[in-house]
Design goal:
The chain has 8 helices and 7 strands. The chain is α/β, with parallel strands linked by helices and about 240 residues long. Helix 1 links the parallel strand 1 and strand 2.
Length: about 240
């Protein structure tokens, strides 16, 4: 039996989190769920505990990279076979987790839920879409493999990817860098089409100007990653 965990990085998501957790419990009441409260100033940790899920409360806001890596360290330490990353803003539909899990059948190490393989209800700003397409082009050229949704936060990792990423995880805007690091280390990446919704409440922290900053920063980070050496997938079970 596969031992699965859902990791939810959350920063000031007290309004969205209850619905996200209730949907996940309805989808699979047996799911082990851990919320990583990334130094929130609201009641994120409180509402998570009230719904009886595990909470890892960070003393400071580390950003999405630090929060996800904390969840992966927890998953590695507790021997989970599969870790599924789900955003706390309600964009990800729990029933779509089935598609991520089916993606492992061909031996893939990481399965990424993509909004762009098939038509999705998800819509974003023009600047953000341009940035997503440029990063997709760069990553695909570097890896020699088409990756359509490098910024998707809806992903599943097998045991050896959990082990690797618990030690090696980008800090700032990690999703596109993670793809490069995993791909260059020999991990098998796969995308599956999923539907995503707009966030339930609040606004994304990435606006138009931030999208340009994000794109430039990510591209620079990816360029640096090309020259880094990481352990090969063969070192992980």
């Amino acid at each position: 039996m596969t031992h699965k965990i859902v990791i939810i990085p959350a920063f000031n998501e007290e309004k969205n989190l209850p619905n996200v957790l209730l949907e996940l419990k309805k989808y699979d009441p047996s799911l082990h769920i851990v919320v990583v409260d990334d130094g929130s100033s609201d009641r994120t940790a409180h509402v998570a505990r009230k719904l009886q899920v595990n909470v890892l409360e960070l003393p400071f806001n580390l950003g999405i990279g630090g929060a996800v890596q904390t969840g992966l360290k927890y998953a590695h330490k507790n021997g989970f076979d599969v870790a599924i990353q789900v955003d706390a803003d309600g964009q990800h539909i729990p029933s779509e987790i089935d598609k991520l899990l089916e993606g492992f059948r061909d031996g893939s190490d990481v399965v990424i839920g993509s909004r762009f393989i098939e038509d999705s209800e998800y819509r974003s700003s023009m600047m953000r879409n341009i940035g997503i397409k440029i990063i997709a082009l760069v990553n695909s050229l570097i890896l020699g493999k088409k990756i359509t949704d490098n910024t998707s936060g809806f992903r599943a990792f097998n045991r050896r990817a959990i082990s690797f990423l618990s030690k090696n995880y980008p800090i700032d805007y990690p999703e596109p860098e993670t793809i490069i690091i995993l791909g260059r280390s020999g991990f098998q990446l796969k995308e599956v089409p999923v539907k995503m919704r707009q966030r339930m409440s609040g606004e994304s922290s990435i606006g138009a100007i931030a999208s340009i900053y994000f794109m430039i920063k990510v591209l620079l980070a990816i360029f640096i990653d090309i020259f880094k050496q990481y352990e090969e997938v063969s070192n992980y079970e």
